[in-house]
Design goal:
By secondary structure, the chain is α/β, with parallel strands linked by helices. It folds into three domains: 228 residues, Rossmann fold, CATH 3.40.50; 41 residues, no CATH class; 37 residues. The chain contains nine helices and 15 strands. The C terminus is likely disordered.
């Protein structure tokens, strides 16, 4: 029997984060209000004030994250006066100065983004997912997010040249090289840092909802069951909902009472899961199978002996 805890907290994350223990969270996955967005629900933060607003939050997130944990920040610059604002870039630089390592950048490609027309740009079809860490040694379970190798390998691997059987360095001088023959026995490969996911059509009474597949992918990559997930901008509770389904403990913080009540009504603070010891189960199963095999073998042997006697007679 194991506990899965879901803590739903109402209030400003700048204050509530101070109540969480140091080094207690395995994964922070969140999407804060973008600059000048969600004015009716979150008040809206001016682009020029965004870094100053977020830094106190970033300091608390740095404190509560475990040394081997990961922080994923879903965010996107806005266009203003005909050009992209640089507040996200400024935020990255400011967080680095506060001790964060900017480890990677993932792209969420929105496969079903809405059509539109602007005089000097095209429609937005992607958002950033910035990965930050406290140390260079962090938990990462890459095998959990592997993908099928694809149809390209069927024909390509049938006709390997001599060059394909050795490490062939790039002709561009980049220093990269590949040995194509290494792919012969592989059915799955590691993914890229571009995630192709559709947006949620049902907004669940919230103005900005990301698909459940988004936090799910990162939970697979950076956590195991019973780890702790934090979303300081919980919104409609997508991150918390996925954490519960994947048997992760979670903390969600929300400043808007309506969203807090909506999510709070869904969850019990503690749920119990019944776990069977896999090794013991398999041992018991193997013993039972062996016993069944012995009985079957004895039965077949007895039948064979009786048949042989009848034939001899």
């Amino acid at each position: 029997m194991k506990e899965i805890k879901t803590n739903i907290l109402l209030g400003d994350c700048r204050e509530i984060l101070k109540t969480l223990d140091d080094n207690s969270i395995d994964l922070i996955f969140t999407s804060p209000p973008y600059a000048d967005r969600r004015i009716k629900t979150y008040g809206g933060i001016k682009p020029e004030d965004y870094v100053e607003w977020f830094l106190p939050i970033g300091e608390q997130l740095l404190r509560v994250l475990k040394p081997d944990g990961t922080f994923i920040l879903n965010i996107k610059e806005k266009a203003e006066s005909g050009e992209r604002h640089i507040y996200v870039l400024e935020l990255i630089l400011a967080l680095r100065k506060r001790g964060w390592l900017w480890t990677e950048e993932f792209i969420w490609h929105k496969k079903n983004c809405y059509p539109g027309k602007w005089p000097n740009r095209f429609r937005d079809a992607w958002e950033r997912l910035l990965q930050f860490n406290k140390t260079r040694k962090f938990k990462m379970y890459q095998e959990e997010v592997m993908v099928p190798i694809g149809d390209w390998a069927v024909d390509r691997l049938k006709r390997l040249s001599e060059v394909d059987k050795i490490r062939d360095n790039s002709k561009s001088g980049s220093g990269f090289g590949k040995n194509v023959s290494n792919w012969l026995s592989r059915q799955h490969v590691y993914p890229t840092n571009v995630l192709h996911l559709s947006t949620e059509c049902n907004n669940k009474n919230h103005s900005a909802v990301f698909p459940e597949a988004l936090p799910e992918w990162f939970m697979k990559l950076f956590t195991k069951e019973n780890d702790w997930i934090l979303d300081p901008f919980m919104g409609s509770g997508t991150t918390i909902r996925v954490a519960k389904r994947m048997h992760r403990n979670s903390v969600g913080i929300e400043i808007v009472p309506e969203y807090y009540k909506m999510v709070k009504s869904e969850f019990n603070p503690v749920e119990y899961l019944l776990y069977e010891e896999q090794e013991k189960y398999e041992t018991h199963k193997n013993k039972r199978s062996a016993k069944l095999c012995r009985k079957t073998h004895r039965g077949l042997s007895q039948k064979a002996t009786a048949k042989a006697r009848r034939t001899t007679t």
